[in-house]
Specification:
The protein is an alpha/beta fold. The protein contains eight helices and eight strands. It has helices spanning about 20-25, 50-55, 80-85, 100-110, 155-165, 180-190, 200, 205-215, and strands at about 5-10, 35-40, 65-70, 90, 110-115, 135-140, 170-175, 195. The protein has an eight-stranded parallel β-sheet. Bound molecules: D-xylitol-5-phosphate (DX5) and zinc ion.
């Protein structure tokens, strides 16, 4: 098993009517983070949850909350997500707010900070963020929904991001369509954090499904 690979189950695929139990169940597994997809029905065509729900599940695990904000605007809500217990906050390059200002705000609050790019966004836009961030989140599906197929062209993008990062201590996270096959391809391309919804929640044995993704 590759211990440098971190797994972040996306609770978008959890049973929302049993959300607390789902978090407690993940807490007993070897997953590394809890990935929380915040969607506003505007930046993406789907609506999920906000800080109140995140706060309500915070006490159920000590695992870091990896909060993926698919919202626009973002800046005026950042403090709410910090208050709710986010450990990592990832925002999108494609928002209207000044991204550098958002990053500075998060870093001042000592929050691990990620920048995500959608599949059609060039990796080159990341250059201006590299001195400030901890994570690059490469979307391997169009953000909005779980259960979509991995977009293969993003493998080359992961490789390009890896080269761009060079010696900097920035981790590459991938999100969307991650299963045993695409996990392996993404890891070989340079990804170290794998987000997975469907392939973890597909059966009751979350631990086994998590270990399957870690084995490369
Ligand atoms: C999509 C979300 C993903 C999604 C992944 O916009 O950001 O985190 O839940 O789900 P799967 O693994 O099913 O593609
Ligand atoms: Zn996500």
């Amino acid at each position: 098993m590759n211990n440098s690979i971190k797994i972040a189950p996306s609770i978008l695929s959890a049973n929302f009517s049993l959300l607390g139990e789902e978090i407690s169940k993940l807490d007993k597994t070897d997953c590394d983070y809890i990935h929380i997809d915040v969607m506003d029905g505007h930046f993406v065509p789907n609506l999920t949850f906000g800080p109140t729900i995140i706060k309500s599940i915070r006490h159920l695990t000590k695992k870091p909350f990896d909060v993926h904000l698919m919202i626009n605007p973002v800046k005026k809500y950042l403090q709410d997500y910090i208050n709710a217990g986010a450990d990592i906050i990832t925002i999108h390059h494609e928002i209207d707010d000044n991204v550098i200002e958002c990053i500075k705000f998060l870093k001042e609050k000592k929050i691990k900070t990620g920048i995500s790019i959608k599949p059609k966004t060039s990796y080159k836009v990341l250059r201006k963020y590299l001195n400030h961030i901890d994570i690059v989140l490469v979307m391997t599906v169009e953000p909005g929904f779980g259960g979509q197929s991995f977009i293969n062209s993003q493998i080359q993008k992961i490789k390009n991001v890896k080269t761009l990062i060079g010696e900097k201590k920035i981790k590459i996270e991938v999100d969307g369509g991650i299963n045993e096959v695409t996990a392996k391809e993404s890891i070989y391309a340079g990804a170290e954090i794998l987000v997975a919804g469907s392939s973890i929640f597909i059966t009751d044995d979350y631990q086994n499904n998590i270990l399957k993704l870690k084995k490369y």
